[in-house]
Amino acid sequence: MEPHASDAHTGGGPLSRGAFLRLSAFAAGGLALANPLASIAQPGRRTELDGFVRLSRIVTGVEHLPGGLAPRYLDALNDAGLPITPAHLVRVAGFSTDGAPSSLAELEHWAAAHHKGTQRTLDAVAAAWWSGMVPIAGGGQRVITYQDALVWKALPYAEPPSICLGATTAWSEPGRKLS
Amino acid sequence: MSTEITTEVIVVGAGIAGALVATELARAGIKVVILEAGKTVDRAEAVRRFQESAIRVPESAYPNLPWAPRPTVLHPNAYYVQEGPENFGSTYERLVGGSTWHWLGTALRLVPNDFNMRTAYGVGEDWPITYGDIEPWYGRAEQEIGVSGEDDPALGAPRSTPYPMPAIPQSYLGKKFADAAKLIDLHVSSTPQARNSVNHDGRPPCCGNGSCIPICPIGAKYDASVHVAKALKHGARLVAPAVVNEVDVRPGWVTVRFLRPDGSGGVAHGRMLVLAAHGIETPKLMLMSKGKAHPSGLGNEHDLVGRFLMDHPTQLSWALANEPVYPYRGPLSTAGIEMLRDGTTRRFRGAFRIEIGNDGWSWPAGDATVQAQGAAAAGHLGARGLAKLRTGFERHLRLASLVEPLPDRENRVTLSDKHDALGLPRPSISYRTHPYATAGMTEARRIHELLFEAIGATEIRHADSPFGAGHIMGTTRMGADARTSVVDADLRIHGHDRAFVVSTAVFPTVGTANPTLTLAALALRAARTIARSL
Fold first, then answer.
1. Chain centroid, CA B134 distance in Å
2. What residues in B contact A119, CB-CB < 8 Å?
3. Which of A104, A156, A162 has its CB closest to that of B382?
């Protein structure tokens, strides 16, 4: 499956008017992030997970995330010793409501305006989904999945190592071209 | 509870050497007991363990057994006691099937001059056997383990028998390198490999799982569990786990003592002993075995056991192709440049062979999952980040040259005063890269550069220091003179008619070929000698 182009504004180019307005709203509403531990209303687990999935789609660039893994990633990342937990980020960035950034550019602009650990959490969420692994606080990594790691989408002409590719000549021909 | 065993031949080690010897002897109706420190491997469990490993290295499919520890790429010093000046990084397995579980499967022969380096080039040593002596055994070994290949003069090793299977098809990127190599008068050869290209010996052809190191999920790549099973079928007995801690060789019999994981003991009595525990455990056991007939250690009357430790120092280089070449699929290597393995330059620098990797930048940069983590950490997120990964992956090139070292008396294995969980000494390693090999690495780097330029690559990078190849050799060297070698041309320990070493440890020099096929040939040859000696 191809990566989904959900981040229309990943570079430093001009933002659309709509994006600018949304960012302005986040900037106003997100002042509480100056203190990441500021009190934010606690959403329910379902809402939190939905928000985490929305956040994950943006940072991974993949719209259709493998089913059932979001709770495991969220819980593992929340325990990973990040300066701002993904659960907290979901709440303060508005992913548990309707007011969240809708593109990577918006999200990164928003993150840049707030706590310096925010970008690290965004990176960690992408790294986790892409690699299938989450850091363990204190050292080491936890494997959440192998075959469903999203990085394999960047190798569409191959299979994850240990998975059969095909006939004994399968590696002799060019792979599928980048579309 | 103590175990007592009586047999004709005791084989220590169930890797490829021990398994082939045991199979040959059992086929001849000889009673054989194999003692192995490790456990049998469940292939499906090993695949699962590999997939669930956070860092996928050669050992990641297998457990580190508390009673039979081994070095790992990630933690070589957890078992080795490194005395310097360099760390020795090559590893091995202690399992039924041995290190062939995680080997690449490359099945090259040595070239004729590899056996007479002193005579031909004035360096190193001559083997007490010639290429002509071992050539028929190479053919037998290729049949036994199943080698796919094509006769190519550039391999430099004349053959009297055909390969049992057609060559494994070269990868697309290997063919790209072949085209580029012609521009600089080099020739890319299909690599002979112990990997089925067709159904063979009850095992399927390779389907490109791409995890040859550390585990072939379908058994298309040969591993020595094949011959352990054959040995057992012909009546051999396997005792595992059994960690041999002492051997005592007398004129009329041999006694072998071993420990179980719970610390209980056992003893085996036999008429003949075969030590086949690879290049570290074999000399370690010989040094630990200070019996009445060998008070300084078995075969160590001249302080040679454990000396002349060798590996193939490896020059690693990687680059970015100017168009997609589609790595990260198929066997990890299917082609190489073999025409640089001999020549008069061996008078002053090591020869080398160039392995063309199909595994992208997995060796220098970690596998795709690790590289994805790096991309995210660098802030390359979203669909554009994933696309950037892809356009990188499909252009990744990797070359590795295995360089010939010279034997160095000061490179050695001794017994540390630090002990493992069973109270046995850990191996203490002294190791340095000789200038002869360093000069070979410099030349290899130059050729890598030319190859990358010929293929139009950019972002060319070279490792600054040698990697280990996982080829542990030389520590019980073969020779005609008991004062300068540990075993004779038949692999019999000098002065001990009943004890043999069958291991890459017996190589007095190592050439540039991955050593396993030569070991298999020597094992088959030694089995005949042992059978005739009973």
1. 19
2. 379
3. A104
Kindly indicate the confidence band of residue A58, based on its pLDDT and cuts at 50, 70 and 90: very high
The pLDDT score that the predictor gives to residue A21 is 36
Identify the pLDDT of residue A31: 34
**What pLDDT, on the 0 to 100 scale, is given for residue A40?**
52
CA B375 to chain CA centroid, Å, is 34
Q: Which residue has the tokens 């001999």?
A: B342
Chain A closest-CA separation from residue B328 CA (Å): 7
Going by the DSSP 8-state scheme, the letter that residue A169 receives in this structure is T
Enter the DSSP assignment of A101.
-
Taking phi over 0 as left and psi of -120 to 50 as alpha, with beta for the rest, B122 belongs to left
**Cα–Cα distance, B272 to B533 (Å, whole number):** 9
Distances A80 to A120, A121, B157 between C-alpha atoms, Å: 12, 10, 55
How big is chain B by its Cα radius of gyration, in Å?
Answer: 22
Strands A133-135 and A141-143: antiparallel
* Beta carbons within 10 angstroms of residue B69's beta carbon: 18
The pLDDT assigned to A24 comes to 37
Structure tokens at B487: 């075993």
- Residues from chain B that touch A86, judged by Cβ atoms under 8 A, are none
* Residue of chain A whose alpha carbon sits nearest to that of B331: A171
Give me the half-sphere count of Cα atoms (radius 13 Å) on the Cβ side of residue B1: 1
Query: Would the pLDDT of A20 be above 60?
Result: no
Alpha-carbon span B102 to B170, nearest angstrom: 21
DSSP for B296-323 reads T-TT-TTS-TTBS-B---EEEEEEE-SS
Element spanning B425, H or E: strand B425-431
The CA-CA-CA angle for residues A171, A5, A13, to 5°, reads: 120
Query: Which parts of chain B sit beneath pLDDT 70?
Result: 1
B471 catalytic per annotation: yes
Q: Is residue A36 over pLDDT 50?
A: no
Mutate to test the interface with B, among A157, A162, A165 (most CBs of B within 10 A): A162
| pLDDT number for residue B1 | 55
Predicted local distance difference test score (pLDDT) of residue A96: 84
Closest by alpha carbon to B274, among B250, B302, B245, B254?
B254
Output the pLDDT for position A41. 55
* Residue A71, Ramachandran bin (φ over 0: left; ψ between -120 and 50: alpha; else beta): alpha
Residues 6 or more apart in contact with residue A71 via CB below 8 angstroms: A49
Interchain contact, A154 vs B370, CB within 8 Å: no
Q: Which pLDDT band holds residue A30 (cuts at 50, 70, 90)?
A: very low
Q: Which of A59, A62, A154 sits opposite B389 (nearest CB)?
A: A154
- Cα–Cα distance, B228 to B234 (Å, whole number): 10
Which of chain B's residues have a Cβ under 8 Å away from the Cβ of A62?
383, 386
Is the per-residue pLDDT at A12 higher than 90? no
How is residue A96 written in tokens?
């548990």
Task: Tell me how far apart the alpha carbons of residues A85 and A125 are, in angstroms, rounded to a whole number.
Answer: 10
Give the integer Cα–Cα distance in Å for B212 and B210: 6
| Prediction ipTM score | 0.94
Is A155's CB within 8 Å of B328's CB? yes
Looking at per-residue confidence, does B315 or A99 come out higher?
B315
Q: Are A123 and A139 in contact (CB under 8 A)?
A: no
Q: What is the mean pLDDT of chain A?
A: 80
The three-state (H, E, C) secondary structure of B431-496, written as one string? ECCCHHHHHHHHHHHHHHHHHHHHCCCEEEEECCCCECCCCCECCCCECCCCCCCCECCCCEECCC
Q: What is the pLDDT of residue A99?
A: 82
- Locate B427 and state its tokens: 């191996």
Residue A27 has pLDDT above 60, yes or no: no
